[in-house]
Every structure is written in structure tokens, then in C-alpha cells.
Amino acid sequence: APLAARSCSPKIGNMLAGGGYDLRGALIKITMLVDNLTIGPTVLPWNWGVMIPATLLLLWLAWRFVASTDADVASLRPVTLAFLFLCVLAMLAAPALTSSRYWLVLLIPVSIALAGGLLSITSPQWRAVGAIGLVALAAYGLCNLYTQRQYQYMELVDDWRELAEMTRQMAEPGDEVWTVMGPFQYYYGPGSICVREWRDEPGAAKKRIEATGADRVFVQYSPLSGHYLGINFTSRGRDAGAELAKLGFECQWQEHYHRDPDFAIKRKLLKGRELSEFRHVLELWERDGAEG
Questions:
Q1: What is the spatial order of strands in the sheet that 176-179 belongs to?
Q2: At a CB cut-off of 8 Å and minimum separation 6, what does 164 contact?
Q3: So what's the pLDDT on residue 149?
Q4: Which is more confident, 95 or 32?
């Protein structure tokens, strides 16, 4: 633990020394992480009717945990807080680790803290209020989860099956279906190929077209809220189109699907985060001079 703290601290110091923007960004990252681990990613941050009481409830339980005089709770407190602190340092020092998908392990100390806070409430009535509040918060988040509402990250509810079936109905015998998205390829089946890595394989598109003799190619890609694993899917999809253009193909049309209903307010309030109004792009490329 001391070694981890020493290795992280210079990077954090350099980041925070850069000025208000870096400090603001660090605070936003920490806030979003805490929000995702407690209230959850299926409650939009500006849903004040839920966020305000939920925040007050969580702060109350956190304080009860930190100030607890219960021997069992107190014995868990140093390890729990140290683990949380070191993980936050690691997140700030390594931006690639910011995504909440890498931080599910933090649900363990967070759950310990919330449970410890509840156990530290001596009044049975107030303890019941705290427990009911947590259950209500979890139930609201689960309701949004299953009804697909208020998602902070729309890529979690992509309907790949519908998109694949829609593309399959438009494709004709002899057409090629290219994608840079693994889930699309899975739902479309053997008739599609993933071209995500063709950027590193010069001439791959030309070889494929020469081998198949296709005159029409569907290209599918999906802009994500951020670049998953450092891959810019939009760029990879456009690269595929650029290769087709070199081979004498022209883009006949480009359609966008699955609009994020909260895009406008997300763009306004979630500044500094990459967002996409539409989840999916589908293009049809046709060889110049080919019969439609």
C-alpha cells in the first residue's frame, strides 16, 4: 500500500498542478464514480427528486460509519477507508481506469460502509428509515434498468438484435456486410465480417472485394460514449468507407439509429465527456457504375 501511494502521488501532483481544469476534472471523475457505485448509472444526475434525498441518505450513513463507536464496525473502518483512498489515487493517476466497469470491486467496501453505517444507528426507528431508503433507491434503479430509462451510458442498452435483423432485411445476395462492432457481428451471424483491425492490414479491403466481387457493401459502426478500450469505433468505421472509396465505391446513403433521448441535456451538463446523439450508423456503399 505505501508503495502504491508513493507511485501514484507524483502523477496526481502533476495533474492537479496544471490548474483548475484538471482539478475540476478529477472531482468530476470521483463524483461520477461514487454516483455509479451508490446511486447507480440508471439515475440521471439531474433527477433532483431522487438525487437529493439519496445523497443526503448516503452522506448520513457514511458519517455514521466514519464516526461509529461499534467495535465490529470500527475494526473494519481503517481497511475499508484505506482501500477506497488508494483506489481513488490509482484512478486519478491512470485515466484509462476511470470507467466504472473496472471498479466493481469497490462495491465491497462501499457495501461494508453502508452496512456499517446502518448498524451504527442506535435508534431502531431511524435504522429502519435508513434501510427502507436504501431498498427504495435500489428498487428505483432496478426499475429504470429493466425499463431502459435514464441510462447514463446508452451503450448498455443497445438493441443489437434489432439492428442486425434490419440490416439483414436490406442486404441482397452477393452484398457484403462489414462492421467494426463485435456484438453486431454476433447477432448478424456468418454473413458479416469484422473489419476493425483492417487499419493495421494494408490492402485487406481490396483483397476482400477482389475475392468476393461484391458491388454493394453495408458498413456498420457505433459511436460510443467514450472510446471503449481506447478504440475509436467511429474512426474505424470511416476508415472502412475510405478504403471502399479508393476502390471506386460511393456512399449511397447513411442512416442513424437508436437516438439517445437525453442527448441534449447530457451534452449541456456532462461537459468534457464524449457523447453521441445516435448509437448506430449504417452506410450503404455501391461500386460506381454497378446496377442498383
A1: 192-194, 176-179, 216-221, 278-287, 249-259
A2: 184, 187, 188, 189, 192
A3: 80
A4: 32
Distance CA(157)–CA(3), nearest Å, equals 40
Cα–Cα separations (whole angstroms), residue 273 to 9, 85, 150, 200, 235? 25, 24, 17, 28, 17
More confidently predicted of 277 and 114: 114
pLDDT range class, residue 6, cuts 50, 70, 90 = very low
- Report which of 159, 162, 156, 78 is spatially closest to residue 112, judged by C-alpha positions: 78
CA distance 110 to 21: 28
Check if the beta carbon of residue 26 is closer than 8 Å to that of residue 92. yes
CA 66 → CA 73, 111, 113, distances in Å? 9, 14, 8
Span 225-241, average pLDDT: 73
Instruction: Read off the C-alpha cell for 44.
Output: 440521471
Rounded Cα distance between 49 and 69, Å, is 33
Q: Which residues sit opposite 251 in a β-bridge?
A: 285
pLDDT at 13 over 50: no
Tens digit of pLDDT for each residue in 187-205? 999 889 998 888 778 888 9
Reduced to 3 states (helix: H, G, I; strand: E, B; else coil), residue 75 is helix
The per-residue DSSP string of 185-252 comes to HHHH-TTEEE-GGGGGSTTHHHHHHHHH--SEEEEEE---SS-GGG--HHHHHHHHHHHHHHTTEEEE
Distance CA 109, CA 172 (A): 54
CA dist 32 and 38 (Å) reads 10
Cell of 201: 492490414
Which amino acid makes up residue 215?
Answer: D
Quote the distance between the C-alpha of residue 190 and its chain's center.
28
CB 13 within 8 A of CB 94: no
